[in-house]
């Protein structure tokens, strides 16, 4: 395949270049993995797997294209194949999730990271991935569709449905017993724990 | 029904006013959602990287420079 070898020399990065670009993606991979899996340790394991896979596939990477998008595909493929193998549990780290995000308007309740992450975990994986890529990661619909391997229309639909589902999280603010009427009719053990925490440390 | 235009006129104005303020509310909610998502993402971006992750990269680079030169 001498012909492609010439092309490869032009478009292939040196190991140093590859590693430098790969290093730059790590914080983004961690952010993507964290919000996708809901668990910091799971996320970092996911990122480690991704880095190893990216390295072994480095000959397939075309210099000049987005390393970030390329590694995002590896990460999400790894994540989805692992969730298909084992039953998915909403197993995110509550202590980390207690951080409060700043609110745009002072008179409104701040959005608690735990509420938002929990809302994300209640979405389907496809919708969660979609809203993270477009809403959090800043990708366009086209880029997000390429990463997810779906049509642009499908991506737009997923984002739209995710936004609609998450509206309830934003509107109800800090999840507490008073907010149960907003549609959470089935209290899981996790929700009971969150309620208990809300009672111990009330927002108002 | 006798003066449909007058009655409908007011109702129509009330409905569209309500629709508009609902739409604005929804926009605000979506704006907060966007801010929340981006804040959540950014907070992880700003975390220091785990040591073992950086160590992993160092290992990759060292072991393959020589192999590549021989290609």
Walkthrough of the structure:
The complex is a heterodimer of chains A (204) and B (71). Chain A is mainly α and 204 residues long. Helix content of chain A is 67%, strand content 0%. Chain A is built from ten helices and no strands. Chain A has helices spanning 2-11, 15-37, 40-56, 67-85, 94-97, 113-122, 125-136, 141-148, 152-172, 189-200. In chain A, helix 2 runs antiparallel to helix 3 (40-56). Chain A is globular and about 60 Å long. Mean pLDDT of chain A is 80; it is low at 102-107 and 174-187. By secondary structure, chain B is an all-alpha fold. Chain B is built from two helices and no strands. Chain B has helices at residues 4-45, 51-69. Chain B is rod-shaped. Classes of the chains: A mainly alpha (204), B mainly alpha (71). The interface between A and B is large, with 42 and 31 residues.
Number of strands of chain B: 0
Describe the oligomeric state of these chains in a short phrase.
heterodimer
Rg of chain A to the nearest angstrom? 20 Å
Which two chains touch over the largest interface?
Answer: A-B, 42 and 31 residues
Average of pLDDT of chain B: 77
Computed Rg of chain B: 30 Å
Major β-sheet annotation of chain B: none
Average pLDDT rating of chain A: 80
- Globular, elongated, flat, extended or rod-shaped: what is the shape of chain B? rod-shaped
What's the main sheet of chain A like? none
> What is the number of helical segments of chain A per DSSP (H or I, 4+ residues)?
10
What is the 3D form of chain A?
globular
Order of helices and strands of chain A: HHHHHHHHHH
Listing every helix as H and every strand as E from the N terminus to the C terminus, the arrangement of chain B reads HH
């Amino acid at each position: 395949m001498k012909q492609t070898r010439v092309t490869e020399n032009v478009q292939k990065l040196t190991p140093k270049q590859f590693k430098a670009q790969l290093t730059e993606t790590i914080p983004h991979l961690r952010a993507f993995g964290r919000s996708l899996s809901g668990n910091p340790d799971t996320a970092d394991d996911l990122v480690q797997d991704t880095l190893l896979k990216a390295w072994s596939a480095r000959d397939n990477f075309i210099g000049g294209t987005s390393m970030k998008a390329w590694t995002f595909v590896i990460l999400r493929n790894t994540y989805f194949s692992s969730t298909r193998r084992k039953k998915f549990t909403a197993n995110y780290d509550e202590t980390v999730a207690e951080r409060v995000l700043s609110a745009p308007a002072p008179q409104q309740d701040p959005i608690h990271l735990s509420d938002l992450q929990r809302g994300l975990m209640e979405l389907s994986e496809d919708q969660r991935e979609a809203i993270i890529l477009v809403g959090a990661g800043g990708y366009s619909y086209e880029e997000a569709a390429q990463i997810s391997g779906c049509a642009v229309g499908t991506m737009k639909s997923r984002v739209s449905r995710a936004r609609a589902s998450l509206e309830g999280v934003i509107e109800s603010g800090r999840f507490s017993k008073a907010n149960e009427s907003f549609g959470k009719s089935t209290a899981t053990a996790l929700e009971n724990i969150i309620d208990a925490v809300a009672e111990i440390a009330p927002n108002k | 029904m006798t003066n449909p235009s007058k009655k409908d006129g007011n109702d129509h104005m009330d409905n569209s006013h309500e629709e508009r303020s609902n739409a604005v509310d929804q926009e605000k909610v979506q704006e907060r959602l966007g801010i929340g998502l981006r804040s959540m993402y950014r907070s992880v971006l700003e975390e220091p990287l785990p040591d073992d992750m950086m160590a992993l990269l160092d290992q990759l680079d060292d072991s393959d420079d020589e192999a590549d030169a021989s290609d």
